[in-house]
Amino acid sequence: MLGNWKKIWAAGISSLLLLSALISVGAGTANAADTTAIQDSGQDVFRIVALGDSITAGYEPGMTDVNTKPYGYAERLLEQGWYHGRSALTNYGILGLTTAGLRNYTGAIKDGSVITAEGVQAGLPDPRIEQFVKLTPQIAAELKEADLITITIGGNDVSSLFLQFKELTDADFQTQLDQRLADYQTNVKAVLENIRAVSPQTTIILADQYQPAPKVALGQMYNRLMTAAGKFTEAADSVAASVNQEGAKVLVAHVAEKFAGVEGSLTHIIGAGQTDFHPTQLGYETIAKVFAELQWGEYRVPTVATMATASVPMSIVVKGVELNTPNKPILKNGQNFLALKDILNAVGASGKWDNKTSSATIVYGGRTVVITIGSKFIKVNGENVAIDTPAFLQKVGKEDKTYLPLAALATGLGFDVNYSSKLRTAFINP
């Protein structure tokens, strides 16, 4: 992104290398495995493929814990997809990637050709690049099947210029900026054309480039860099319009305007001893909102996200509707339970209660699930399936309500169940 000086850039580059500790080798392959599993289910899936640089990868400074997983705009976009049905994400964000590098990479994907890491871009700091270059046939297939392709790219194109911006005259700065803008447009147009050759009709959303440094850090230089960011937005709009076609949308996520004036809270460039140009969690959420509103016209947050504590049951979203019932979910042994009637109403299934056997039988889509009070097994089409915590009776007012383990039931009925630990929300889609 725009507006870096030597101290900031050095910190940013060194911290990029730390990502190797927390993103597993071939992050795209891990997601691809999930996608394949959903595909085999025979259900319609909204497929997102994310391409680009470290912003796509979801990098933040200080991510050194191997148990920490990036939670960037792409992961949030996947959550938004779950509100609308079965969704899957493959993320090919490459650390340090430039528009020229993405042009080379998408060119190999389009041509089905073998490419080396150096062939993509010399000196890439991403420790996963050797795995990424081996995935070009897989990525081509994923792009062909994708419903949405997202791209963040361009910040690394201008980083070297902004290392020197304080020393350059206005005329020299403008000359060099114009050259980089011209290269940006040429490369990004080629990237879009390469993707279009593989996936002719998939919606593509390209982000513009935000300026990350707050005015307090830049002084009079702030206006110069904001003007430069505006030119990048114009360039993104222009190149997208040149490729946009009826039935094959290329949209621009105008992220830059959302960062303007609030850079200090949306980037790590200053604060808590950090100097880095990557977004904060609030910054990544801001980016995700722009993408989601372009795709779905909204960005949703579950009610529980604003009030959740360890003792509060998570939010349940069934077919895009957040469950709201007088019979509140019960959290027991880390599992969420719902009243039988609420489950039937939420998923549109039929069911009955047998007092003699203390069991509930639920039928949906050719599957029959029998759940018995106190049993460590449920029956799915007659076969026993182990569950962690059995169903139980809970007194609500003067009535005994049958509470069933939601995850076990949803899995037994063949639903797609996804859980966001960040939102503390389960998304269930038939």
UniProtKB/TrEMBL annotation:
Gene3D superfamilies listed in its UniProt record: Copper amine oxidase-like, N-terminal domain, SGNH hydrolase
Residue span(s) of domain Copper amine oxidase-like N-terminal: 317-428
Pfam families: Cu_amine_oxidN1 (PF07833), Lipase_GDSL (PF00657)
Keywords assigned by UniProt, alphabetized: Signal
Signal sequence range: 1-32
Top-level taxon: Bacteria
The protein's name in its UniProt record: Copper amine oxidase
Organism, scientific name: Paenibacillus odorifer
